[in-house]
Backbone:
């Protein structure tokens, strides 16, 4: 199974600039060894369910140390018999459209 | 910490009527003992992070047995020092608005 | 077409207690005449696409008057040939499960 | 106001391979002139509220022509006094982390 998950996690109690918290969390992801991809609205991870949700849990544990209210959204797309979708999905759409797209 | 999570999980490969799969999953939730609340677009759970995500994982494991493509979305709102938000949040809004609302 | 949408909208720059802003927005929804249903994590609306997104737009316009950073999530389930799903979906699951559920 | 929105829209009634529908929709986005960015789990758009939701509406109208059940999720981050966040948010995180990240 390829579990592809995009998630974002932010403190709600730290004002309108939260990039410090996001940066700190990105380090947890980069160190995890799980394939990831940063986007403007969230980070994608690909792996088995427990790998992916293990990374999200570590990020939560870190944020919960100094934030009293946290909002998080996770979108998951699971597909049997497919791997490498973190890069493959866009490549397939480009192939169908017949040109390179903004990414 | 009160971890309040709303999630929905559906097969993508079983046509446009998926209530059979939803019903089966609801039984897993009802048997978990974790406070829950059914809505038109998802199910809310409230507990600690591991409790809530344990239920979601069991639901995923069951669905993965006979579905090859699954879509899932999870929205989480964590707040320190508050409990009972699965019912309390709406009650507080009603108090502020000063009347009963559709729920 | 029945467009069933659950959405939540919150200021990110007003600290960890945002129920005042939620209450104000709920009034916009209640006055719209569009069938709605409040939940712990968001509000469901049912109607045509333009009706539903018109309500969300009005709520955004009101919040943008005094909030500098706003987060919003919207989940939409559209189905042809079905109406009344804001109450009907849960009723169908209860029928399949064979008992009343927490809602 | 910079309205940054990530969305995905898929038919639920066309089996587990939906890239044909995604490709068709991407053309609507590319032709809109609104800055966009493709990701593995959705497409980001940046503009004013009506521009962004106008593109999503056109994509919905096209999909509704031949799909009877459609699922869509939209996540919006609005911020006053900031522009170019579709590329700027990642750049800022990279600056804080002090290195280039997978994107």
Residues:
């Amino acid at each position: 199974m390829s579990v592809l998950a995009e998630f974002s996690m932010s403190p709600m109690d730290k004002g309108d600039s939260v990039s410090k918290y996001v940066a700190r969390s990105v380090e947890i992801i980069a160190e995890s060894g799980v394939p990831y991809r940063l986007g403007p609205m969230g980070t994608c991870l690909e792996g088995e369910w427990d790998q992916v949700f293990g990374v999200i849990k570590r990020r939560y544990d870190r944020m919960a140390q100094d934030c009293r209210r946290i909002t998080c959204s996770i979108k998951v797309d699971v597909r049997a018999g497919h791997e490498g979708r973190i890069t493959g999905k866009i490549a397939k759409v480009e192939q169908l459209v017949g040109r390179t797209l903004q990414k």
In short: The helical segments of chain C are 19-32, 49-64, 85-97.
